[in-house]
Amino acid sequence: MAEVVKMTGNLENNSKKDEIVINYKEVKDKIKSAAERSGRDFNEIRILPVSKNQDLDKIKKLKSLGIDSFGESRVQELLDKEEEEPGFVNWHFIGHLQRNKVKYLARLENCNLIHSLDSPRLAREINKRARKNNRIFPVLVQINIAGDDNKYGFPKGNFLDVFPELWELDNLEIRGLMTILPHFDDAEKARPYFRELKELKEKLNSEGYGITELSMGMTNDYEVAVEEGATYVRIGREIFGEREYDQ
Ligand SMILES: *Cc1c(COP(=O)(O)O)cnc(C)c1O
Prior knowledge:
Layout (H helix, E strand, L loop, with lengths): L1 H36 L8 E4 L6 H8 L5 E4 L2 H10 L5 E4 L8 H6 L3 E7 L2 H13 L4 E8 L9 E2 L3 H9 L4 E7 L12 H16 L6 E3 L6 H6 L4 E4 L1 H4 L7
Parallel strand pairs: 1-9, 2-3, 3-4, 4-5, 5-6, 5-7, 7-8
Helix pairs in contact: 1-2
The structure holds pyridoxal-5'-phosphate.
The site of pyridoxal-5'-phosphate (PLP) has 12 residues, from strand 9.
């Protein structure tokens, strides 16, 4: 009897994991279609599975497909997963980062992109910790493009004036911009903001900076984000299923 129960448990476990693979492929297909619709090259768009509140087994299932980078939004959770299986995937940090936690990420070679650089003080701290660890840390700058009071990020209004002081930090490599939008019931409502983020990137490049990445779009709105130029889409629920809890 006990044996039967155990086997059923395993079967359920496996089908859950296979579901993740199916979900991932569906997301990929939708992104391909969105890229085609908008005349973009699918290969310049990367899917970042957001593994927050998900266990290592699920991450491993995707890893077995060759997916090697995952997004986490809490430092402690990232470190716990890293400790369970050191170095087995690359981590992108996507949540609000407290300055006193930067040192933990700066030490981790396989933490290789921070999407959420959201203040000049945080920029200076990452720069300092990167230098201590003899590395140049790749980052994206988070812009509060919708002017949402509940979101972190640089205000868009004076960003062109603020940008040079970030750009001159030697141990940061600024690769692009990122935004988190408020939830809209209709993804079309997100479109003007995605477009605005892309225009901000183009404006910076027209002033001589060279940034390429746009991290925008989540489960609710990633197809629109791809149509508007996203190079990273950060997707949690549509790949992993609903989270058991959320912060
Ligand atoms: C949780 C999270 C995501 C993924 O959200 P889903 O709606 O589950 O796709 C993307 N970006 C950030 C910054 C997040 O915190």
